[in-house]
Design brief:
The protein is mainly α and 125 residues long. It is built from five helices and no strands. It has a domain of 76 residues.
Length: 125
């Protein structure tokens, strides 16, 4: 368990650093659009899909490596990749109702939570 926590922590740190570097490199190309975040989210989804496919196909790959890369690196790089993988899992299981609630609720409640916290702390503290 401790080894797994360390692997996830190291992977998350590396993923977060990569996310930051990509955002920095794209900061001048934004033109009002958050290209860095957009790029990281799409790249993270592509990467977690590749990793998930490989670990499903080649079952002899180390669970520790999978944990380090998918939960750690991809999680630190972008949680959107995990959100998307979980959504696809629901769709593959034909659980369209749960997917709809999860996807709509995550986006809508996420934006509302950010707005509530931002306006509460900005104007009421």
């Amino acid at each position: 368990m401790v080894k797994d926590i360390i692997l996830v922590g190291i992977g998350s740190g590396i993923g977060g650093i990569c996310r930051y570097l990509i955002s920095l490199s794209m900061s001048q190309a934004r033109n009002g659009f958050p290209w860095g975040t957009f790029t990281v989210n799409v790249a993270g989804c592509l990467l977690i899909g590749i990793l998930w496919g490989l670990t499903s196909r080649f079952q002899h790959l180390s669970p520790s490596l999978s944990l380090f890369l998918m939960v750690g690196f991809c999680g630190g790089f972008t949680t959107f990749s995990t959100f998307s993988k979980e959504g696809l899992t629901m769709l593959q299981a034909n659980n369209f109702t749960m997917f709809s609630i999860y996807a709509t609720g995550s986006v809508a409640l996420g934006i509302m939570a950010v707005a509530l916290a931002y306006y509460t702390t900005r104007y009421n503290l």
